[in-house]
Amino acid sequence: MSTATLHYIHDPLCGWCYAAQPLVGAVQAQLGDRLALRLHGGGLFGEPRHVDAELAQHIVHSDERIAQLSGQPFGEAYKQGLLADDGTVLYSLPPIAAMLAAGSLDAARAYPMLVAIQNAHYQRGLRVVEPAVLAELAEEIGLDGVRFALAFAAADGHAVFEHVEASRRLLDEVGGQGFPTLLLEIDGRRALLPHHHYYGRPDAFVQMLAAQLPALH
Asked: Locate the DSBA-like thioredoxin domain: which residues (predicted)?
């Protein structure tokens, strides 16, 4: 029987990955029984980086474009709070470790954890680099807080570094142009998906993908 996988090379703190959230979410909702989803966190901010005025201005311009193309909302707590605070730090590894921890407890919770992190960051202006915030988000999606804390501690170290390195190797192998990169694999054959043509049109993205999937037997 044919197997199909959607590989999603992303970063939780990448604005364009937030733009792609409705696309991936629609695929999960409509094609989840035919198409497995594999998440690959790429580590956009591999080292902690403070949001200074120059970086904040760059992010604001990018976010305006993202909102225009995708319709994704950016909350005032993010725009006027998180981005305006020079104490804000962007660091991809803790949220990626949280995603890995959620997936280790329940594979079906890895993607909801990513969505929760994205929404907490871009809509609620929460500091998703902080383990306490990530633990709260894990509980919000139905995970046990104590078990999550243990899984996060196990992932937040060598495991997350290995994951990021593997994600970047995959990105290089397939010739991806950064985050997000979406890749359809059917029976070992991989093809890049032109997701950027579908921002704001999740149903059209699902239809394009569905047309490429093998028929159910």
From this structure: 11-189
In sequence order, the 6+-apart residues with CB closer than 8 A to the CB of 87 are: 50
Cβ atoms of 140 and 116 closer than 8 Å: yes
User: Crossing angle for the helix pair 15-31 and 110-122, nearest 10 degrees?
Assistant: 140
What pLDDT digit, counting tens, does each position of 32-67 carry?
999 999 999 999 999 999 999 999 999 999 999 999
How would you classify the pairing of strands 36-41 and 4-10?
A: parallel
Task: Give dist(CA 92, CA 166) in Å, integer.
Answer: 15
- Return the pLDDT at 3: 83
Copy the structure tokens of residue 26.
Answer: 């629609």
CA-to-CA distance for 19 and 180, rounded, in angstroms? 9
- Tell me the Cα Rg of the chain: 17
Beta-carbon count within 10 A of 69 CB = 15
Q: What is the dihedral of CA 13, 149, 26, 122, to 10 degrees?
A: -30
DSSP state of 195: G
What percentage of the chain has pLDDT greater than the value 70?
98
Residue-wise pLDDT tens digits, 84-143: 998 999 999 999 999 999 999 999 999 999 999 999 999 999 999 999 999 999 999 999
Could you tell me which of 63, 128, 54, 56 has the C-alpha nearest to residue 94? 128
Q: What is the pLDDT of residue 217?
A: 42
Residue 17 CA to residue 175 CA, distance in Å, equals 18
